[in-house]
Amino acid sequence: VIYIEILYFSSLTERAIARHEVREIEQRHTVDGPRQDVTLDEDDDVVIIYNRVPKTASTSFTNIAYDLCAKNRYHVLHINTTKNNPVMSLQDQVRFVKNVTSWKEMKPGFYHGHVSYLDFAKFGVKKKPIYINVIRDPIERLVSYYYFLRFGDDYRPGLRRRKQGDKK
């Protein structure tokens, strides 16, 4: 019973913090408009979020973004989540929205990572990021995953995965 009460209290606290942060975002975007300390023209106020699906050539696609970012004057940022969990808590969602919308120095930006879609309009954001993705034939994706688990990849050759080398 105590454990459930702590979880319930933690959940209530997280929701209260998230509601406060959502109000902050709404005030910034409805009353004052975007932050005035750094002004970006329309072309520079763009964020693309590539919410990567595993084993769909996402590493190759992301490498292209890194190769072209200096030449085309945009920023690339990897979204790293705790334990590679693509689903964020409500509090983390609010923080993510706040960071993406207010980090003027990282715009225009290409953000990539294994994250779920997040509806920025739900948080009162008018200038929403553009989501893109790559898909792959499901059987080809499964075959790629099999070989990835069995032999690893070239990007982290020293990393040993649990099922790597399993002959089953």
TrEMBL record:
Chief localization: Golgi
GO molecular function, one term: heparan sulfate 2-sulfotransferase activity
Protein's membrane topology: Single-pass type II membrane protein
Matches recorded under InterPro entries: Heparan_SO4_2-O-STrfase (IPR007734), P-loop_NTPase (IPR027417), Sulfotransferase (IPR005331)
Keywords: Disulfide bond, Glycoprotein, Golgi apparatus, Membrane, Signal-anchor, Transferase, Transmembrane, Transmembrane helix
Pfam families reported for this sequence: Sulfotransfer_2 (PF03567)
GO cellular component: a single term: Golgi membrane
Localisation per UniProt entry: Golgi apparatus membrane
Signal peptide range in chain numbering: none
Family: Belongs to the sulfotransferase 3 family.
Name by which UniProt lists this protein: Heparan sulfate 2-O-sulfotransferase 1
UniProt source species: Dryoscopus gambensis
